[in-house]
What does this fold into?
Amino acid sequence: MHTTNLMTEGFNLMLMGMGFVFTFLTLLVIATTLMSKIILHFSKPEPVAKPAKPTASTLTQDKNTELIAAISAAIHLHRQQK
Amino acid sequence: MDKILLLWEGSGLYNLSLPQFIMIAICLSLLYLAIVKKFEPLLLLPIGFGGLLANIPEAGLALSAFEQSLAVFEPALMQSYADKLGLVLDGASKVANQEILLPAIKSLEDPVIMQELKTMAAVAGYTDGMLNTFYQVTIASGAAPLIIFMGVGAMTDFGPLLANPRTLFLGAAAQFGIFATVLGAVGLSSLGIVDFNINQAAAIGIIGGADGPTAIYVASILAPELLGAIAVAAYSYMALVPLIQPPIMRALTTKAERAIVMSQLRPVTKREKIIFPIAVLVLVALFLPSAAPLLGMFCLGNLMRESGVVDRLSDTAQNALINITTIFLGLAVGSKLVAHLFLTVETLGILALGIVAFGIGTATGVLMAKLMNKMSKMPINPLIGSAGVSAVPMAARVSNKVGLEANPQNFLLMHAMGPNVAGVIGSAVAAGVMIMYLS
It folds into this structure.
């Protein structure tokens, strides 16, 4: 009796937990996508006026090696600070 | 001669019990792991040292004033405790009296009487041990994990996530490890191998979130008695991520899948980065208030970083403040590394379940990424799914490394950072659900 209750409770927690995590993050995906669309729509001229800082993706592949090394070093430092 | 005998009886060596000796050995091995093997040294070093301090015989650094008074067992004070509880101490021997009084206090449920006994201990001049004070201030209050979470927020760049919001699903899928482990823990109790209740099972499962502050926060609320073992398991396995994850990742993917090149991420504007933490907080407020402490502090830290107007605060949150908090959090966790809490079958169960949680989380993350790769037009390398367990940024680096083995030109690091930070949000949401459901 007691053990079956515990199992049921564990199972309920799993269903509810996973359900909730997925629902919440789905909502977050929708909200984020919408937010980005709205912001990009209203600030069209802005990216031209002040272009975003170059990220890994905006650089070409051959420069990437160097960049990755720098990022890895930065992350290593960050990791040590954590 | 009497004085020398008294000195000897007050010495650590005379009072050292075997369990304490074993605990000291365990704490020394934690220090070894931290210093020589570089396992999460920032936490394991203070934890290991806190454990050493907590196990010094007779010093009682990890005990509260009341526990201290029971350990000393001063006859006059014990008599007044017994009077309060309506017991008779027959006074034959100290051991006999302890057998009468201690079980009665252990089973005492009336909080008012308990409070009165504690007041009596305080009046008699007993004080809380140093580590006990640290524990009350940092963990029992919930403050330290939250302050650390703010610092983590201030270190987190949501750029890769904003460029590809769908990676949030990977962060969600990897949380399956948490809940599968809860089921495993209650399963083990049903089989009678160990005895976990549902709260303890949930606190153990959160190890699979691969997020130290979240694990400590949940454990301090749901199962403070297991906190030492859970924190040690969480931080040691986080250090082992580069060993635990790759075999699972390779087993679940083909070489062709591992070599998939992902399209470049679009640049993300500053405005999106500023509004994102606020959007997360609004969603938390609307749907899951029990996750508000964790995600609220996380979003605050991130907003301080991205707004760019409070660089001083952001700098403090991710450096000085997080370091100070880490020292005291580590010592406070160490105070739970005492024999009667740690030297149990349950600890072995926690260590075993914790690694299972990591493994399952990694596997479901990779499988989810495979599914998304099949469904979407944009190619998705399944390796970034494993980063969904959080363990920032170690798990993302592992994805990158395994990807490079399959295709030396393929850099997945930035792509893996998306699911990686999504995993932090995912495990905080999972923590919120558990706290809401169980307390």
Summary: Chain A touches chain B through 51 residues (CB under 8 Å). Residues 47 and 57 of chain A are 16 Å apart (CA to CA).
